[in-house]
Amino acid sequence: MLTDTAEYKYQLDNQFFADLDAPEVQKGQINVTLKVRKTSGLYQLDFHSEGKVVVICDRCLDEMELPIETEDRLKVKLGAEFAEIDDIVVVPEEDGYINVAWFIYEFIALSIPMKHVHAPGKCNKEMVNKLNKHLRIEGEEDDELDETLTDSQEIDPRWNELKKILDNN
Length: 169
Description:
The chain is built from five helices and six strands. Strands 1-2-3-4-6-5 form a six-stranded mixed beta sheet. It is 27% helix and 37% strand.
């Protein structure tokens, strides 16, 4: 079996993310190493991405940096027209190339945690103070709630679990 390999290095900066104009990440500094290995009829692309991206904090809406490190693989083969079949991307043989920019972006975006929140004490203090004004503090009485509940009604225990989420913010 005949194999050929090649290695490419990319330094992605804010301009890369701006050019893609994608919603999840708009700034960052990422180093990507791409190793391409050709086997009979198939190209295996191994990506190693490492660096930091800037996302919006879910709590205070300020920008925050998140470290990124991810290993991803893409299999590519030549065919009649562009297609994605299972885990293989088919590239038209007449083109003979693949633009990996969007794939790199997707790998980076998928490695970002669902929740983007600053470390404790690092959020914008003004915004946190405004949020705290609108959160119901435990122990406060809600007059409307008191009128609808009587002593004989029990509170669904699921609400207590949801209150824990508010206490963590």
